[in-house]
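re the bet — no i am not wrong, look at it urself. input seq straight from the record:
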Amino acid sequence: MVRDMQNIRVNSTGATRGAFASLLLMLAMATPAAFSADTAPASTPLPWAYAINTPGVEFPFQFNVPLTVPGSDVAYTFTNPRNLYDPPDWHPEDHPEMPAIVAQGRNPGVFACGYCHLPNGMGRPENASLAGLPREYILQQMADWRAGLRQTSEPLHGPATFMRAIGATATQEEVAAAADYFASLTPKPWIRVIETDTVPETVVAGWMYVEAPGGGTELIGNRILELPENLELTEMRDDRSGFMAYVPTGSVAAGEQLVASGSCRTCHGDDLRGLGPVPGLAGRSPSYIARQLYDLQVGNRRGLWSPLMQEAVAGLSLENIVSLSAYLASLEP
């Protein structure tokens, strides 16, 4: 069955992942003209959180052969792995039936939610994990995007611009259907936090850090590097393949102390898994958490509930943001 110019879905009995001849995949996500100047330096003091594509990074992708992933009984033959209106669903048994807006989106302008956030809702470092977020929270954030009240502190960070466009274009019915779906999902362990002093040398492709081909190592410094556990599976958008986050040695304990002495649990719950319409923080992407803390601190998130956070984040140093993000990511979601 041909699916919207991207995939031919076939019975994969006997098919294997051996169809991949290369270790890595093409990562350079199709970049809108607005971001063609991706050589510009990051405009925030947290460039690692707002990953900007490294020019010219491209790895071979296998086209026109059936590809499979572990634990799936389907195969996809890709003709365009970056079709934002037709992401693969490798494990349909893992989640409820996706509404059309999540599975295919609406062309033009409203991309399939499942492309970026994945069918399981756990997302990737460049976007948000939506699984299990309160319906009311998702609806409010989409309203904030629509009203221009959510902005990114790094204009070259493409995913945030995509969300502004989607927020302006999606109908209330589409937003409600997506909110119902993602709120119904149960978040799962997705990020393996690794404390370290050194990290692999990296490049950015598809708005995500990956190991530089033939690269060495370097000091981590005061930053977090979030990389896929398995690059092939991540680029095939396998929603059973998660991420690892390299964080500075001692940052998890430092973040735990900040939470213990602060007010995070008052709103986000004793277990930091959410309270009423307030989102859970436990086990979510540290890159995403850091971006939101900084965006709130500098006033680029100005939505209905943002004032509740602005006082809490006003005094955070960059080191505090790293430590908080590392600790929250280390928790069970």
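see?? The first strand starts at residue 2 and ends at 3. told u. also The beta strands are 2-3, 7-11, 74-78, 191-196, 198-200, 202-205, 208-211, 217-219, 225-228, 243-248. so pay up
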